[in-house]
Amino acid sequence: MGKIVAITRAPALSLSTACELTFIGRSRMSFDTLQRQHATYCAALADAGAEVVLLEAEHTLPDSVFVEDALVVLDELAVTTRPGAASRRPEPALIEESIAHFRTIARIVAPATLEGADVLRIGRRLFVGISTRTDQAGIAQLADIVRPHGYEVVPVHVSGSLHLKTACTALDAETLLLNPAWIDTAAFAGFDTIAVAADEPFAANVLPIGSNVIANLAFPRTLERILAHTGRHGLRTIAVDISEFGKAEGGLTCMSLVFRDQAADGP
Description:
By secondary structure, this protein is α/β, with parallel strands linked by helices. It has helices spanning 15-18, 31-47, 91-100, 136-146, 164-167, 220-232, 243-246; strands spanning 4-9, 50-55, 71-73, 77-80, 104-107, 119-122, 125-130, 152-157, 168-170, 175-178, 192-195, 207-209, 212-216, 236-240, 257-260. The chain is built from seven helices and 15 strands. It is globular and about 40 Å long.
C-alpha cells in the first residue's frame, strides 16, 4: 500500500495577527500556544502512522500553516489550487515542490477559485463545496482534470462556514460527521451521518488516517459521539487540542496533506 506521508508547515508568526477571517471575529492568539499545539498535532499524525514532513514557516503568509487549501492530492495526481482569498494565492506554488516527486501536477487556473478544504474525497467521489472560497468555475476545472482518472465531482452548497470540511468530514467510508445547518445534506444521501452537538458547530472536522481518527479535544460532547462510533467499528480515536488554530477558522484536516507514497509500493 505504500507509506502514509503527511506534509505540514510550521505556523507563521503573522498568523496570530493577520490571518484571513470570514465567519468569526478576530481574537487574541498566543504564538507560543500555536507552536505547541502544532507540535502536538504533528505527533498525532505520527502516532496514526504517518511519516511527517515539516516545512519551514512562511512568515509573510499568515495562513500558510493551512496547507490543505493549496493542494488536492489524489492517488494519480495532485492539483494545485487557486485560493479564493487573494492573500493566499502565493501558497500553492510554494508547496508544489514538496509534492512534485510524489505526484504528477495539474493546476486550477485564473479566474477560477478552489481551495483544498472544500474537497472531501470518499472513494472515487469528490464532494466539493460551493463556498466563499471555491466557485463553480473552480469546481468545473477540477471535474475536467479528474474525470479521466475515474472520479466523480459532486458540488455541495455551503453556508455558514468557511469550507465544506468545516461542516462535514468522513469518519469512515460509510459514515459522515456533519453540521447539517451549514451544508446541503441532500448531496450525501446514502451515507450514515452523525450530527455534531448543537453547541459545538465547528466540531465536524476530523482526520481519518488508516484505522485511526484524529479528533478535536476542544469539542467534548461531539467527541463522545465520535468515540461511540469508532469503538463500535474497531477504530482508534486520537484526540488533540488545536483550539488556538480554531481562532483562525482552522481545523484538523487544514494543517496537513495526507496521502500514500505510491512509489514506495515498488515494482
